[in-house]
Write a structure and sequence with these properties.
- α7 crosses α15.
- This protein is 63% helix and 9% strand.
- It starts with 11 loop residues before the first helix and ends with a helix.
- The longest helix has 53 residues.
- The protein is elongated, with a radius of gyration of 35 Å.
- The protein contains 26 helices and ten strands.
- A six-stranded mixed β-sheet has the order 6-7-8-3-9-10, sandwiched between helices. It has a four-stranded antiparallel β-sheet with strand order 2-1-4-5, covered by helices on one side.
């Protein structure tokens, strides 16, 4: 999806605000080098073939008009073929060469088109793989900060241009070779012809190096607008849950109008850029036309003075306009190449993004068994670009195998605490200790191997049931007995066993038509099974029963102690029927711990927990 934020993630004022953005040449060169490297790495053989064919195509540009000159001179004046005689061929041989040249020119572009088709798939495989690898390694800040996410969005929109950069160079190489060959021939007759054509090409050269700024500015200014518009398109065409609600609430016309207004703004930006482009093309066309007329006059005047044969006249006439055309093609190819390289620069930016949460160069393995527990000591944390702390002076000690419940109003800091424990972010001050050692000293791999989690916005993988659960611990994904056991723990086995293919059943219909669509509650049980399958020392359950029916929730939490045995468990929930089973309840308020203790102790205290509990309990009276 090429949008960020929620329904109002990009405000109308912000999305319509224009800003001029230019890309420095060093970045464009980096982008071109990156695309060239990807192209060569994807298939050295095809890259070599394309280079050779492009050079060969440029050399062919002079053969056709030169043979035509020889034929005209022969027919008009009976001139013999001294060049042909030196090669031991006659008039017939010349025609054969002419026919072969024409044939090669006719099939040249078709051959290149087929090679490009073969090459594209290889380049895309490498480019997309590199992009996926880079983006998936980034920290949470890159996806939660609008500026960073906008760059990632632009990179995803433009990565296809990595294919076009190499081919842009090749399309420039062919006319470049042709220009050199034709210029050499024209130089032997009259250098003034070359000078006149080159003067006419000056506007197109200027435009090639500056014109892209118009399109890039329109692209950069319109990116948030297009992403916002695309959100409405996604909402109304790709989200069955949203479509139902949109119909019931009568939002269809409202969202369509939003989409149209945003897209109108996007189109206006593009229109302005195109108008500037058209103006430049008119100037370029006039300059090239006028210079070609003067160059043609020089050629005709030489013929009138008797300095040229009619064959030489046709040869130079053909070369003159071929020279102008080759320059136009060359400049056009350079313009497209610069355009592709410019639009590819966000990809360079993303590949240069560096993780901000770093692993210690002397990282240690996570303890095989947690003996001292987990401790938050004076932990304070600010989100990037925020002046208000999300957590402030958190001090918390969790014993080995202890079940902790985190409760509090939305925005109180519960999920932030978990993000720090998972090292999605590093603390701004203070430290988090696991078995007395700072969490930063453990390797990412061994830390993550010991954390099992189900987030509130869990992922619904379009994959087989066994894969959906097995993703929790890839090393054990082939152990069906363990997958089945995890499914039974979460309650997912109750519906999985009804499927014809059981664990082999594909979930979701986006990839496979025969896939099974699950209810939200069933998906949550699958995600919960995935967390159980991981069998980690630390288990994090963020609203694990939010979509599960009351009966299933009761059965699950009746076995809560058994399911979380020998694990440190963090349970985030707004359901007090759930959190009361925890060994210790942590109540959070505005980024601080307001109180902690057991369910009964906190009720007796009569503080925040008592207030929240009685509010919820009142709804059942």
């Amino acid at each position: 999806m090429d949008f960020s934020g929620g329904l109002f993630g990009v405000s109308q004022d912000e999305s319509l605000r224009t800003r001029k953005e230019k890309v420095v040449w060093s970045k464009k060169i980096k982008a071109a080098k990156l695309a060239w490297r990807w192209t060569y790495q994807s298939s050295p053989f095809l890259a070599f073939v394309v280079v050779v064919l492009s050079i060969f195509g440029g050399l062919l540009s002079i053969i056709d008009p030169y043979i035509f000159k020889l034929v005209i001179d022969y027919l008009v004046g009976g001139t013999h073929f001294p060049q042909a005689a030196q090669l031991g061929i006659g008039f017939g041989g010349v025609l054969v060469i002419y026919g072969a040249t024409r044939t090669l020119q006719n099939i040249f572009f078709d051959v290149l088109a087929f090679i490009k088709r073969l090459h594209i798939f290889r380049i895309e495989k490498l480019a997309f793989s590199e992009m996926m690898k880079a983006v998936s390694s980034l920290d949470a800040v890159y996806f939660e900060d609008p500026e960073y996410y906008n760059t990632i969005s632009k990179a995803n929109d433009s990565i296809w241009r990595s294919v076009e950069v190499f081919w842009g160079i090749m399309f420039a190489l062919r006319p470049f070779v042709g220009i050199g060959v034709i210029a050499t021939a024209l130089l032997a007759y009259n250098p003034l012809i070359i000078l006149l054509v080159l003067i006419g090409a000056i506007p197109s050269v200027i435009f090639a190096f500056t014109g892209i700024n118009y399109l890039w500015s329109a692209f950069a200014e319109s990116s948030p607008i297009r992403r916002h518009a695309s959100y409405y398109k996604w909402l109304m065409t790709d989200q069955p849950e949203a479509v139902r609600e949109i119909r019931l609430f009568g939002l269809r016309s409202y969202f369509l109008e939003k989409f149209r207004k945003l897209f109108d703004s996007f189109i206006k930006n593009q229109d302005r850029a195109v108008i500037k482009y058209i103006t430049w093309y008119v100037v370029i066309g006039l300059a090239e036309g006028i210079s070609s007329v003067f160059a043609a006059f020089v050629v005709v005047e030489s013929f009138i003075r008797g300095e040229l044969t009619i064959g030489q006249l046709t040869f130079l006439w053909s070369l003159l306009f071929q020279f102008a055309a080759q320059i136009r093609w060359f400049v056009g190819a350079i313009n497209q190449l610069i355009s592709d390289a410019t639009f590819l620069t966000p990809v360079v930016d993303v590949l240069e993004f560096k993780p901000q949460v770093l692993e210690s160069p002397r990282a240690k393995k996570f303890p095989s068994k947690i003996k001292k527990g987990i401790e938050f000591k004076n932990v304070t944390f600010y989100y990037p670009r925020s002046k208000r702390p999300a957590l402030k002076n958190i001090n918390l000690k969790i014993e080995p195998a202890e079940n902790i419940a985190l409760v509090g109003e939305n925005g109180s800091g519960k999920t932030t605490l978990i993000k720090l424990l998972c090292r999605f972010y590093d603390v701004s001050s203070g430290e988090i200790l696991i078995d007395g050692r700072n969490i930063k000293e453990y390797s990412f791999e061994t830390l993550y191997n010991n954390i099992g989690v189900i987030f509130q916005d869990f992922v619904k993988y379009e994959a087989l049931v066994k894969e959906n659960i097995g993703f929790g611990r890839l090393a054990n994904i082939k152990k069906k007995s363990k997958i089945t056991e995890a499914a039974k723990k979460s309650g997912a086995w109750n519906f999985i066993k009804e499927f014809k293919n059981k664990l082999e059943t594909p979930l979701g219909k986006r990839i496979r038509e025969e896939g099974v669509e699950l209810s939200t509650g069933q998906w949550q049980k699958i995600a919960l099974a995935r967390a159980f399958f991981r069998d980690a020392q630390i288990l994090i359950l963020d609203e694990p029963t939010a979509a599960i029916d009351a009966k299933a929730e009761y059965q699950l939490f009746r076995r809560f102690q058994e399911l979380t045995k020998n694990k440190i468990t963090f349970l985030i929930s707004h359901r007090f029927s759930t959190v009361r089973m925890a060994d210790k309840i942590i109540v959070m308020r505005k980024g601080k711990i307001s109180e902690q203790g057991s369910h009964q102790a906190l009720l007796k205290k009569g503080g925040d927990y008592y207030r929240l509990f009685t509010l919820q309990a009142g709804g059942y009276k």
